[in-house]
Design a protein that fits this description.
The structure holds two protein chains of two kinds. In chain A, 32% of the residues lie in helices and 14% in strands. Chain A is of the alpha+beta class. Chain B is of the alpha/beta class. In chain B, 35% of the residues lie in helices and 22% in strands. Chain B has helices spanning 15-27, 62-72, 79-99, 138-153, 221-228, 256-259, 273-276, 286-298, 319-325, 327-337, 398-420, 432-443, 450-464, 471-488, 502-526, 544-547; strands at 2-11, 30-34, 50-51, 113-121, 126-132, 156-159, 161-171, 174-184, 190-200, 233-234, 239-246, 263-265, 310-313, 346-355, 359-360, 366-368, 374-380, 385-386, 549-557, 563-571. In chain B, the strands form five sheets. In chain B, strands 1, 2, 6, 7, 8, 9, 16 and 17 form an eight-stranded mixed β-sheet that branches. In chain B, strands 11-14-13-12 form a four-stranded antiparallel β-sheet, covered by helices on one side. In chain B, a hairpin with a 5-residue loop joins β8 (174-184) and β9 (190-200). In chain B, α13 packs parallel to α15. The chains are: A alpha+beta, B alpha/beta. Chains A and B meet through α2 of A and α3, α4 and α10 of B.
């Protein structure tokens, strides 16, 4: 018991969950300057916290001008897709401990959409592509008085693509979309898939024709970036392949 | 400054706002203003389901649902409104199905239903399967389906437009709605929306608590805009604490987990809800379960080194059932806690979840300026409103129902109103209050920070007006809030720009939270009884003689500019059901 005090200090420091992390953030504010700069912030954080918590610590306690979108903070509203250590993720679903906090953590806006300020991009082209695929149920004839019937199997057929939260992580991870903003992009195709394979829907042919366009589904190069990026675990590339197959066989 | 003219303006694009928009766009020129994007609203975080007595899997009827709603609300529910809610629930679910909502299905292809807290067969005999659901993302599917149908109907959205003021013009002594003032986040520009009818559907106020299931953006903007213009707020002391939030984080884990068979356990592994609610057990109403959890914790039977939580145990359920029925919440446990719910129980604690109170309306969604007078042209629906179908405690699955039933009703009523009425003249300098608020914050050189004041507000609310309250704790909160409001006068922001100034936005939101926290605490202090979500340890019983009435809170400004909350009361509408003792 020669160094009881030291032991105690060590025990305390071992119990403290906080570590120091460098957040390296790509800043841009055309109101101030046209230049893009990378800025480092050192913060104390529990590694079990989220990247969103780290951004909040900076915004709330260090630099109020840091700008990003967020709302629910648990991966359901789709506001905070960003490029973290070079990969598209939701800041609220990414824990610090899982992204190598010993090195600076880079955070930048998602690619392929115009950056408006810091991590905020113009979402309008993304939502336009979504609206273009007729993302709503189309039926013919008289409505039944009760619900339309659907077997559990038919319901399961499009279950995966109903999980989409329109965060744009997939679309903005796609090299084809980066090079040519005209491509509908994975998210729009996912939402077309959700209706094409819904047994209640009667506009599958129309949607397939929309996606048969030169900027449609054939632009996909099957790089699987979208599947890797999806925070909801949707098999995006598989969904795109199913739409391609449906275009060839006209069976869905 | 830009001036726009629309027949109908809807503030908020969550479930209630978009359900209203689908109706009003068909009938009138409508604009939807949202401070987010339409699919970002917190409706999307709702998980477990939407109640309707479809009787698809077992005997059920809307009268039982009405009774459960009234009893669940500890008899503070307006029973005429609850009856409408339960009756129209059936069509509300069928409407959504026809719009494309992918509900889970029964083996014969109809909409599947599951159990939920407080919903019972034949007036409390046993739990009933009434909740219509889509896995554990029912709110997500409702939000997506409503947005899809807004796209179909060509609804006009103004995204990232933050409504900061409600314009009121008095005609012959009666307050009329003239429109709203909005701040465009992208540019910092101020917009006046003159409208024949305005519908508030801007959600709740949960962010004045620290441990909450609510989104960062739920800051009571609609309530504050109306309150500041002299309109009352009803029953603000009633706030729901959902039993199962992820420990320390507050992220919601649906009651559907218990509906599927999940069990709450204390540190001894005991199924403690059997003691508190012998019939409904883990599926008693939320206020009862949250109090039981905190009783276990206070009496030393909490889990973990600090004994500050209990467990939600799903380990006895087959993994296939969890994957099929509860995929999102099991994923949350893995992501945020590193826990595998197949094999390990999930640490939970009650989390601030839902405001039962809000802007008072009648069953058509018309806003009231006192106990009976309607404000012509002004409507509210969803969590921002108080109809009151939730009374002192909302039943699970009744909020997704509320937004659909009263969203639709207010959308139709507002559009019909704008078809029959002309514009009301705007008040002079309609932008003045908003300009003053923004300029004050932008030019302030004070030394107070938004984040500090918000943190202290949230801590005092959690400590003093959460599940258990006393005269002492509420008074502590009232004093602390007054201090914080004073300090807020010296708050300054770092971002002085016009482009996407979320620093400014958060400062304004904090102002709203402080104002509403004060209303809540003052209302709670005056209610010397325990009822539903409002539990006073110094008055542990319900007092129907003195408090079977709704609280109506008004903002009063003295000649010296000082601000106080004046309380008044409104009778509860009782039709079929006499108040009884509430047992589960």
């Amino acid at each position: 018991m020669a160094t009881p005090v030291l032991d105690k200090v060590e025990a305390e420091s071992a119990a403290s969950p906080y570590i120091t992390v460098t957040m390296r953030i790509r800043r841009f504010n055309p109101e101030v300057s046209d230049a893009v700069v990378w800025e480092d912030f050192q913060i104390e954080i529990d590694p079990k916290e989220r990247v969103l918590d780290a951004l909040h610590k900076i915004k709330w306690d260090v630099d109020g001008t840091l700008t990003f979108r967020r709302s629910c903070a648990h991966g359901i509203c789709g506001s905070d897709a960003m490029r973290i250590n070079g990969k598209n993720r939701l800041a609220c679903k990414t824990l610090i401990k899982d992204i190598n906090p010993e090195k600076p953590i880079t955070v930048e806006a998602i690619k392929g959409l115009t950056v408006l300020k810091d991590l905020v991009v113009d979402m309008e082209p993304f939502f336009q592509a979504y609206r273009d695929v007729m993302p709503f149920l189309v039926t013919k004839g008289n409505e039944p008085t009760r619900e339309r019937l659907q077997t559990a199997e038919d319901r399961e057929r499009f279950d995966d693509t109903t999980k989409c939260i329109l965060c744009a992580a997939c679309t903005s991870s796609c090299p084809v979309f980066w090079n040519d903003g005209q491509y509908f992009g994975p998210a729009a195709i996912v939402n077309a898939h959700r209706f094409i394979f819904d047994s209640r829907d009667e506009a599958g042919e129309q949607r397939l024709e929309i996606l048969n366009d030169k900027d449609g589904v054939w632009r996909c190069r099957t790089t699987f970036n979208c599947t890797d990026a999806c925070p909801r675990g949707i098999e995006v590339t598989k969904a795109i392949q199913e739409v391609k197959r449906a275009l060839i066989t006209r069976r869905f | 400054m830009k001036i726009h003219k629309y027949d109908t303006v809807i503030v908020g694009a969550g479930g209630a706002g978009m359900r209203a928009a689908i109706e009003s766009t068909k009938r009138s020129r409508t604009a939807v203003l949202t401070k987010l994007y339409p699919t970002r609203s917190h409706t999307g975080a709702a998980q477990g389901g939407m109640a309707a007595a479809l009787a698809n899997v077992e005997e059920d009827n809307w009268e039982w649902h009405t009774f459960d709603t009234v009893k669940g609300g500890d008899y503070l529910v307006d029973q005429d409104a609850a009856e409408i809610l339960a009756k129209e629930a059936i069509d509300a679910v069928l409407d959504l199905e026809k719009m494309g909502l992918p509900f889970n299905r029964t083996p014969n292809g109809t909409i599947d239903q599951r159990r939920f807290g407080g919903h019972s067969r034949n007036h409390g005999e046993a739990p009933v399967r009434r909740s219509c659901y889509a896995a554990d993302r029912t709110g997500h599917m409702i939000l997506q389906t409503l947005y899809q149908n807004c796209v179909k109907e060509g609804v006009e959205f103004f995204n990232e437009f933050y409504v900061l003021d409600q314009l009121i013009t008095e005609i012959d002594g009666v307050k009329h709605s003239a429109g709203v003032v909005a701040y465009e986040l992208a540019t910092g520009e101020i917009h006046i929306f003159q409208a024949k009818a305005v519908i508030y559907a801007s959600g709740g106020t949960g962010k004045f608590f620290k441990v909450t299931s609510n989104a960062h953006t739920l800051t009571g903007d609609g309530q504050a805009a109306c309150y500041r213009r002299g309109l009352p707020l009803e029953d603000m002391e009633f706030f729901q604490f959902h039993p199962t939030g992820i420990w320390r984080m507050g992220i919601l884990l649906t009651e559907g987990a218990r509906g599927e068979g999940g069990i709450l356990r204390n540190k001894d592994g005991e199924r403690f809800m059997e003691k508190y609610a012998p019939v409904m057990k883990d599926l008693a109403s939320r206020d009862v379960v949250s109090r039981s959890i905190y009783t276990e914790i206070r009496e030393g039977r909490g889990c973990g080194p600090e004994g500050d939580h209990v467990y939600l145990d799903l380990t006895h359920l087959p993994p296939e059932q969890l994957d099929a029925k509860l995929p999102d919440i099991t994923e949350f446990a893995r992501t945020y806690l590193g826990i595998e719910p197949y094999t390990d129980p999930i640490p939970i604690q009650p989390t601030a979840h839902y405001a039962m109170g809000g802007i008072p309306t009648n069953v058509e969604g018309e806003v009231l300026s006192d106990n009976t007078t309607v404000v012509p042209g002004l409507y509210a629906a969803g969590e921002v409103a108080c109809v009151s179908v939730h009374g002192a405690n909302r039943l699970g699955t009744n909020s997704l129902l509320d937004i659909n039933v009263f969203g639709k009703r207010s959308g139709i009523a507002a559009a019909e109103y704008s078809a029959k009425n002309d514009y009301v003249e705007l008040p002079e300098n309609p932008e003045s209050l908003v300009v003053a608020t923004i300029e004050k914050l932008r030019n302030s050189t004070g030394h107070e920070r938004v984040a500090d004041i918000r943190r202290e507000l949230q801590e005092t609310m959690d400590a003093n007006v959460m599940v258990f309250r006393t005269e002492q704790t509420i008074k502590t909160a009232v004093e602390k809030i007054a201090e914080l409001r004073e300090r807020y006068e010296n708050v300054s922001i770092q971002d002085k720009g016009k482009r996407f100034n979320t620093d400014l936005l958060e400062a304004i939101e904090l102002g709203n939270l402080l104002e509403l926290a004060e209303v809540m605490a003052v209302s709670a202090l005056a209610r010397k009884e325990s009822r539903g979500g409002h539990y006073r340890e110094d008055y542990p019983n319900r007092d129907d003689v003195n408090f079977m009435r709704h609280t109506m809170a008004y903002r009063e400004v003295g000649e010296d500019g000082s601000e106080t909350v004046r309380l008044d009361y409104k009778p509860v509408v009782q039709t079929r059901y006499q108040p009884m003792e509430r047992k589960y």
